[in-house]
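ingest -> validate -> predict -> emit
validate: passed (alphabet ok, no gaps, 94 aa)
predict: started
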Amino acid sequence: MTATAATSAPSTSQVPAELLDLRARIRSMPAEIRAELEPLAEDACEQAGFRARALSLAREALQQFRLELAAAKFDLDATRGEREALRRLTDRGF
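emit:
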């Protein structure tokens, strides 16, 4: 593997263990077989890493959206309460 391939390889924590095992098995094969299969395995690992990063970003965005939605609901409830209190005051003639 070249230095550029090593630096562009996805983080192993984001790649399924099965793909890492496959990549290790391919590296132990004879050179002619390895030359044919290793690029395919590296591409599969890169794609798996990309999907893992995309899924992680989507989860973070969903978590942030849920937090903002909860804050908006809280603000809405507070505003409704204030409106009702103001209505009660105005109904009494204040």
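Residues 1-10 have pLDDT under 50 and may be disordered.
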